[in-house]
Amino acid sequence: MTFNVFSKFLATFTLLGYLTACGGGSGATANTQTPAAPTPLSVASALFAEKALSASGQLACASCHTDDNAHADATGTTLPIGGVNMDQQGFRSSPSLLYLASNTAFRFDANGLPFGGFTWDGRANSRAEQAAGPLLDSTEMANADVAAVARKVRGLSYFNDFVSQFNVPTAATDAQIFEKLQTALQTYQELDPDYLLFNSKFDKVADGTATFTAAEQRGLAIFNSPNQGNCASCHTSRNGPNGERPVFTNFSYAALGLPRNRQIQKNIEDPEFFDMGLCGPKRTDLSARTDLCGQFKVPTLRNIALTAPYFHNASVSTLTEAVSFYATRDIDPGRWYPSVNDKFNDLPVAYRGNVLRTVPFGQQRGDSPLLSLQDVDDLVSFLKTLTDDRTAAPGSPTVAR
Fold first, then answer.
1. CATH code at 99?
2. How many Cβ atoms from other residues are within 10 Å of residue 86's Cβ?
3. SS3 at position 244
4. ω into residue 38 within 30 of 0, thus cis?
5. C-beta of residue 305 within 8 angstroms of C-beta of residue 330
C-alpha cells in the first residue's frame, strides 16, 4: 500500500469514527473499536463533509463537490441548491476542485490577459480564500456571518481535534477559528491523493503502459491541431519542461458565447440579469472592465466525463453536446439560440463583441464544419481517457523517463 493510499484509508477510518461517535451505530452492543489518531487530513476531510457547518444543517462542501463526480456537482444536479431553507438555486455550476495545485493567484500577464485565481471568476486567490465563499453565500451554506460559522465549529464533536491539528489558539476569536477552518479546507485539498491522481489512461499511455484506440488517437490529434479542435491552446496537453504531466488548462479565461440557461431561476425571475464572469455580479473589482465581460475560467478537462452538466451556466447536458457546441456554434446557431439574430444571448448586446472567435469558432452560418460528426465522436473518445482510476494508487506527477 502506498503512502498516499494509506493516508486516504486512515482519513476515512478516522472520519467513520467521528460519525460513529455522533450516533451512527444502531445495535445494542457498544462499539469498542478505537478510532485512529487524528491527523490534519482526517480532521480536514471531516470538515469538508460536515453538514453542520451550514445554516440549514443539510449542506457540506462535499454536497456540491462530490467524490464520485471529480469533486463537482452530484449526478442529476442541474445547478446547486442551498440557502437557509435549502430552497435557493445558484446560477453557476460547481466546478471540479481537482488538479488546481499548480494554479496561482489571479493576475494579468505581460499582454494584459487574465490568468489564475479560484472559482469561475477567479475572485479568490487561494483555496483557503475560496472556501470562505460558500460558507457565507446566501444561496449556499448561508451562514449570516463569521461568528455564526465559528459557533458551529466550536459545537463539533471533534472540535478538540481541530484545535490540536490546526494550532487553534487558546480562547481563539471567531475570526481566528474561521481562518483556521479555511486553512483546514485548503489542507484537505492539498493532502487528499484524489486531487492529483495522474493515473488516467492518458497518463498510462504517456508512461508506455497502455495504448490509445484508433478513435482516441484521432481525437488527440484533433485536440492538438490549431486548425481543427485547437483545444490545447487553452487546455494544455503537453508535458512541462521537467516532465510535469499536463492538467489540461492554462488557467486562462474565455467568453464562449454560451446559450442562456432557461432553467436558472435568476434568469426566469429577471430577463435583464446576466452573469458576466470577470466583470460581475459576484466579482466586483473588475466591474469597469467591460472588455472582460463574459469571460470565465478555463477549467481542467481531467475527469471531464464525470462533471456534467457543462460550462459555468450548466447549459449543456452531455459531453458530446459540449464538444458539438464548439463545432457548430457559428455554422449552425439555430441549434443553440432561440433566434439566429440573438446569438450569444447570455450576454448583453453591448458585450457580445467579447466572445471568442478563434478556431474552431469564427466561421459563418452554413460554412463547412471544421469538426465533422466523426471528429466530435473522436474528441469525446479522447476526453474520456482523462478520467482517473479512483480504485488505483496515484501515479507520479511527472512522466516516467
1. 1.10.760.10
2. 14
3. strand
4. no
5. no
Residue 85 lies in a domain: yes
Q: What does the angle CA 275 – CA 281 – CA 285 come to, to the nearest 5 degrees?
A: 130
Q: Where are the alpha helices (DSSP H) in 22-85?
A: 40-48, 61-64
- For residue 401, is it within any domain? no
First-to-last alpha carbon distance for the chain, in angstroms, is 23
10 Å CB burial of residue 139 (0-12, 13-18, 19+) is buried
Q: Last residue of some domain: 196, 225, 243?
A: 196
Report residues of the chain scoring pLDDT below 50.
1-7, 9, 13, 16, 19-29
Assess whether 130 and 264 both reside in one domain: no
Cβ contact 298:234 at 8 Å: yes
DSSP bridge pairs for 89: 81
71 and 209 fall within a common domain: no
d(CA 133, CA 178): 12
Q: What pLDDT, on a 0 to 100 scale, did the predictor assign at position 341?
A: 85
CA 11 to mean position of chain CA atoms: 22
d(CA 250, CA 291): 20
- The answer to whether 259 and 346 are in contact (CB under 8 A) is yes
Supply the pLDDT for residue 172: 98
DSSP-derived secondary structure letter, 133: H
Residue type, 158: Y
| pLDDT of 6 | 44
Query: CA dist 138 to 89, 99, 144, 279, 340, Å?
Result: 10, 28, 8, 20, 36
Same domain, 228 and 178: no
Domains: count for the chain? 2
Grid coordinates representing 194 are 484524489
Residue 375 to residue 228: CA distance in whole angstroms: 9
Domain span at 18: 3-104+124-196
C-alpha cell, 291:
472588455
Check residue 11 and give its pLDDT.
53
pTM, entire model = 0.91
Contact yes or no for 65/97 (Cβ under 8 A): yes
> Distance (Å, rounded) from C-alpha 318 to C-alpha 87?
26
Could you tell me which residues come within 8 angstroms of residue 39 by beta carbon, excluding any fewer than 6 positions away? 7, 10, 11, 14, 165
Three cell numbers written together for 352 = 457580445
The pLDDT assigned to 36 comes to 86
